[in-house]
Amino acid sequence: MKRIFFLLLCCCVLLLAEKPPKQEQRQDFRIAQLQKELEAIDTKFESSENVWLKHYTSLENYNDLTNEINALQKELESFHTNPPRSLTHRLETLQRQQDLLKEYAQHPYGSLLEAKNIDEIPQITNLFLILSGYSFIKQIDEQKNALVANQESLESLLELVREKYRILNQLSFVDKSVAVADKIVRIQTMLEELEGAQRILATSMDLYNQESQSTILKLKNQIKAQFLKTIYIGVAVRVFFCSSICLITILLAFLLKLTLRKYILDTDRIYTASKVINFLNITIIVLILLFAYMENVSYLVAIVGFASAGLAIAMKDLFMSVLGWFVIVLGGSVHVGDRVRVCKDGSIYVGDVLDISMLRITIFEDVTLTSYMENRRAGRIIFIPNNYIFTTMFANYTHGGLKTVWDGIDFTITFDSNYKKALKIATDTGKKYAKGYTEMVRQQVHRMRDKYSLRNPNLEVRSYCMIEPNGLRISMWYQTNAYATLALRSTISGEIMEQILKENDIHIAYPTSKVITSANDGIGNKDKKIDEANVENLALLGGAVADSKDNV
Q1: According to the model, what pLDDT value does residue 526 have?
Q2: Do domains 294-397 and 403-507 have the same CATH topology?
Q3: Residue of 388, 386, 369, 367 lying closest to 378 (CA atoms)
Q4: What is the C-alpha separation between 330 and 386, in angstroms, rounded?
Q5: What CATH fold (topology level) applies to the domain 403-507?
Q6: Which numeric CATH code is attached to 294-397?
Q7: Is 346 left (phi over 0), alpha (psi -120 to 50) or beta?
Q8: Which end of the chain is more exposed for a tag (fewer CB within 10 A), N or C?
Q9: Cα–Cα distance, 268 to 262 (Å, whole number)
Q10: Max CA separation in the chain (angstroms)
Q11: b/e code 489-501 from CB counts within 10 Å (16+ = b)
């Protein structure tokens, strides 16, 4: 029985003896965990470039040096005579270090807490002082931004200090060592010091914000007053300047028109030049007004650029017409009063140019050969868009000072006619009525050689004889007035017919039927005998159709 009781007692003792080691293990683990967190915080402190931490470290070093100097001085006082040289040298070194940190003794955070006083506020009394006002406002804003940055830096440091203080408090429950207690005292002192600096900084920022807002408002009012004063003066000067420039522009345009009328004899050219001058004058005046009253010219350029791009896509034809107007005016391909011919969608229009605007050419449709042969009407006002000069056949009968064009008359004679006499009649008639126009065009072509590469063209009347299925075609070409082609053609045609009708050996070939009632062949009244069986196979003159054998 005693043995059993002894065994039970031993078990109880063993069980009670195992608990303290387990508690110690848990305690050591907690200490190690807290020490690890503390090391992480210390690493952040060591790697931090926080300006508040640097100032506090300098203050702490100053206090440590002060305590060490006091202790060393007491130790030296114990030596009445001949103190050790090492102690004296140590004291001198510590004092020199203390002098370097002396500025942190009374105001360790002075440069971080206090803002510069706003003194000597500039007075904006004229336009040239506006820049100084804006510069002063910029300095105030920079100082305010510096205080805000200091506040943010202090708050980030306080977060680290509070976190370290929390870890040390937790460590003190499991580690009752003097080192931990000393660390708690030091971090608590640091926390109180920084929190006091934070309160001072907040007060300093409030005072500076109130003073800076008042100063900035005062400066802005002064700048605004000077701007308004400058605008009033500038508007007056600008109005006077713009008015003067516009009057000068109008006067120059008037003088230019007078000069053109003096040296240019062609009224059509004077008309076109006057329209160009008016356009340029209006454009210059508009640009002067835009640049005078537009505060930012770069905005104007950007707006005009984007607007032009959009309009160019949406109104391509309109812009092409304006471009065509520039080509017409600058190139001189068409002038007011010219006779032109335009082909569009199978229709042909011939007329005189009445006006050339920025968008279209206005022509008056005259009675011409084209009207006679194709349109069968005239007298219409035709509006031709300027962009047609890029895509449509456009002919100018009077370009370069020319007033004449080639015109031709064709007629057909029988194969047995005297074609040489017919050619002479046509040529002589053409020379008779076109002589004046031939001399005119010769002079005009001579003047055009300075502008164009022209050879020596044959400008005399030309006549040609061609073999056609129904006879001999006589083609006569001559120079005629571009504005009266149809009238001269009518006169020459009548004269040729009168001359041919007087000749017995010239016969006009036209669709006819000829009945052969004799044994002749019917050609030139030649007395040539043929068989009655072959009468139906005789060829008829000028495309005539032979009658059947029953008609013989």
Answers
A1: 46
A2: no
A3: 367
A4: 13
A5: Alpha-Beta Plaits (3.30.70)
A6: 2.30.30.60
A7: left
A8: N
A9: 14
A10: 188
A11: beebeebbeebbe
Q: How many CB atoms lie within 10 A of CB 232?
A: 10
> Are 461 and 393 a contacting pair, CB within 8 Å?
no
Backbone angle region of 322, left / alpha / beta, with phi > 0 → left and psi within -120 to 50 → alpha: alpha
Q: Is 80 exceeded by the pLDDT of residue 125? A: no
Mean pLDDT, the chain, rounded, equals 75
Q: Is residue 335 within 8 Å of 351, Cβ to Cβ?
A: no
* Environment class of 140 (CB within 10 Å of its CB; exposed 0-12, middle 13-18, buried 19+): buried
Q: Determine the pLDDT at residue 346.
A: 78
DSSP conformation letters of 194-216: HHHHHHHHHHHHHHHHHHHHHHH
CA distance 535 to 531: 7
Question: Strands (DSSP E) along 397-511, which ranges?
Answer: 404-413, 462-468, 471-481
Phi and psi angles of residue 15, each rounded to the nearest 5 degrees, phi first: -65, -45
High-pLDDT (> 70) share of the chain, %: 69
The residues with which 476 forms a beta bridge, in sequence order, are 409, 463
Q: What is the mean pLDDT of residues 427-436?
A: 90
Sheet holding 462-468, edge to edge: 404-413, 471-481, 462-468
How many alpha carbons lie under 13 Å from residue 304 in its C-beta half-sphere?
A: 10
Report d(CA 269, CA 389) in Å as an integer.
Answer: 20
DSSP-derived 3-state class of residue 508: strand
Phi and psi, residue 409, nearest 5°:
-125, 125
286 vs 451: CA distance, rounded Å:
36
Please name which of 526, 513, 439, 426 lies closest in space to residue 473, comparing C-alpha atoms: 426
> Domain spans of the chain?
294-397, 403-507, 511-552
Q: Is 265 helix (H, G, I), strand (E, B) or coil?
A: coil
Assess whether pLDDT exceeds 50 at residue 534: no
Torsion of CA 46, 48, 52, 55, to 10 degrees: 40
User: Which residues fall within 8 angstroms of residue 280, CB to CB, at 6 or more apart?
Assistant: 253
**Tokens encoding 308:** 């032009």
Strand order from edge to edge, sheet including 394-396: 381-385, 360-365, 347-356, 339-344, 394-396
CA distance from start to end of the chain: 181
- Phi and psi dihedrals of 512, rounded to 5? -140, 170
Residue 428's pLDDT band (cuts 50, 70, 90): very high
Rounded CA separation 477/434 (Å) = 10
